[in-house]
């Protein structure tokens, strides 16, 4: 897997800088994006972050909407107008803006959570609450999927994780990425 995986908790230093985990920096370096692209999550007190891989998913999702509609404008404003590109220093650190810190409730520590094509930046307490809720949801989805296996799938495998989670398997945001 070439994306962002696992989670890491790091402390902010006295100047408000935090080190992006080395495995995440490696993914960003392979991606070729200069800096760290960030925007406030739609549905949680977290910040979505990444590079070109994340931007490609967002652009693909945005392409599903006619550019002259309110829906397109709302998404474009969120994805681009309210986004920030943070500079990563030579030691792999970033300084979060006040907007990011306030939205995610960042104070002294942050949790970086890999989600393959992107990662999220969380307050540790909020992350633990969300992790527990997501673990419960995943368990429910797995139970609903039961022992079903789809013989029509290539290689005779069972349902994919996205199918079990009730998402369209075409892409991370439900588009045709």
Account of the 3D structure:
The protein has 177 residues and is an alpha+beta fold. It folds into two domains: 7-122, Transcriptional regulator MraZ domain (Chemotaxis protein chec), CATH 3.40.1550.20; 124-168. Helices cover 37% and strands 19% of the residues. The strands form two sheets. It has a six-stranded antiparallel sheet with strand order 1-7-8-4-3-5. It has a two-stranded antiparallel sheet with strand order 2-6. A hairpin with a 4-residue loop joins strand 7 and strand 8 (119-122). The longest helix is centred in the last third of the chain and has 22 residues, at 124-145. It is globular, with a radius of gyration of 18 Å. 22% of the residues are buried. It holds the Pfam family MraZ. It is found in: Cytoplasm, Nucleoid. Residues 143-177 are annotated as: Disordered.
Describe the secondary-structure layout.
Blueprint: E1 7-11, E2 17-19, H1 22-31, E3 36-40, E4 47-50, H2 52-62, H3 70-81, E5 84-86, E6 93-95, H4 98-104, E7 109-114, E8 119-122, H5 124-145, H6 161-164
Antiparallel strand pairs: 1-7, 2-6, 3-4, 3-5, 4-8, 7-8
Total number of distinct structural domains:
2
Widest sheet, order of strands: 1-7-8-4-3-5
- Provide the CATH superfamily of the largest domain: Transcriptional regulator MraZ domain
Task: Give the low-confidence spans.
Answer: 151-157, 159-177
**What would you report as the Rg, rounded to the nearest angstrom?**
18 Å
Question: Helix and strand string, N-terminal first?
Answer: EEHEEHHEEHEEHH
What is the rounded distance between the termini? Answer: 18 Å
Helix/sheet category: alpha+beta
Protein name: Transcriptional regulator MraZ
Organism: Acuticoccus sediminis
Keywords: Cytoplasm, DNA-binding, Repeat, Transcription, Transcription regulation
GO molecular function: DNA-binding transcription factor activity; transcription cis-regulatory region binding
């Amino acid at each position: 897997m070439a994306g962002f995986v696992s989670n890491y908790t790091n402390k902010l230093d006295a100047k408000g800088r935090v080190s992006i985990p080395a495995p995440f920096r490696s993914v960003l370096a392979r991606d070729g994006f200069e800096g760290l692209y960030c925007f406030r999550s739609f549905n949680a007190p977290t910040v979505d972050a990444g590079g070109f891989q994340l931007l490609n998913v967002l652009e693909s999702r945005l392409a599903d909407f006619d550019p002259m509609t309110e829906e397109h404008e709302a998404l474009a404003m969120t994805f681009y107008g309210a986004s920030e590109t943070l500079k990563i220093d030579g030691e792999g650190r970033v300084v979060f803006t006040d907007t990011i810190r306030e939205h995610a409730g960042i104070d002294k520590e942050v949790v970086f959570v890999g989600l393959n094509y992107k990662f999220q930046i969380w307050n540790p307490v909020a992350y633990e609450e969300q992790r527990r809720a997501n673990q419960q949801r995943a368990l429910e989805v797995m139970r609903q999927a039961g022992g079903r296996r789809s013989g029509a799938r290539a290689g005779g495998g069972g349902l994919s994780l996205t199918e079990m989670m009730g998402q369209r398997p075409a892409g991370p945001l439900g588009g045709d990425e």
